[in-house]
Amino acid sequence: MAVASAPGKVHLIGEHAVVYGEPAIFAAVGMRTFVTAEKSDRVGYKDKRWGHNDSWSLEDVVAATDEVVGLWNACAQKQEFSELFSNIKANSYENYKKAAIGAAMKNLGINGGISISIESQLPAGAGLGSSASLSVAAVNAIAAEYGKSVSKEETNRIAYELEKIIHGTPSGGDNSACCYGGLIWFQKPNTILSLKEEIPYKLENFILVYTNQPEKTTGELVQSVRNLEENLRNHCVHEIGRLAKDMREALKIRDLETMKRTINRNQQILAKLGVSTPEIDEMVSAIKEKGGAAKLCGAGGGGMVLCYHEKKNILLETIRDLGYEPLETDLAVEGVKIENENSNT
Fold first, then answer.
1. CA atoms in the 13 A half-sphere facing the CB of 174
2. pTM of the model
3. Among the four 115, 159, 198, 328, which has the fewest Cβ within 10 Å?
4. pLDDT value at 345 more than 50
């Protein structure tokens, strides 16, 4: 039996634009997904969050993997992934679960069965990278159970393939942040840069707030932005890219006013892209009135909001006055790790 864990992530800046090749800044958050893997003659999937406890034959998993990967390729040709999303959401995401495990095992060169059990501190659909955290931890746990050594680069590559199955065209930033941890500068296709040396201090006075469960999945929200009028989308995307560069420079010199302006402007553009909600807009407005900054996290449509104020007590009071409970967590934490060493390989 092998156990691996990976953190979630937040976008400090760069949501949606990162899909189109603009830079983004990610921070790994101090909430983790734990995956326990154990060899089996079948493929098992247990997730305590949803009460899932499934078991399939190896042949069934291979067939589902081939079907979903083939469907992804067909959707990629059209740049329209609605059919994929409908397929993987059927039967409590059964096709996704089969295909994700099957793709992980295929990429790891494993032909045997595996049973995985999942425990996560991350709410799904909140913009905290719950699926990426799961993908990264699962790849490491499965590899460890079979005595295979995988580098972080290889873990990240395989996790990205799993992310594509559920999200269609993710940027790869979520899985990179969950894999490497810390604070990273990410830009497609392959720029993953640790910002530890240029931003060595601890990021303080950031608070997360969960608003509600998004009605749409990450993939559906990404598709909704893709479906916008091209000139509008491109203008917004390019401005978010410029804001990411401004944020990096502001963080280097601890220019808090520029950082706040950048966060607030990022949120305005995300609202223009149609991925904010009335609840998020209300919270952002209240925090701005108090001299702080706030923006949605991840794909949007609800979920988590990242809030900042130099005076944390003002931030906490404002959030509670709106009827929400603030979530204090560390940023830029350690990436994926093996929690135990399997001695039965």
1. 32
2. 0.89
3. 328
4. no
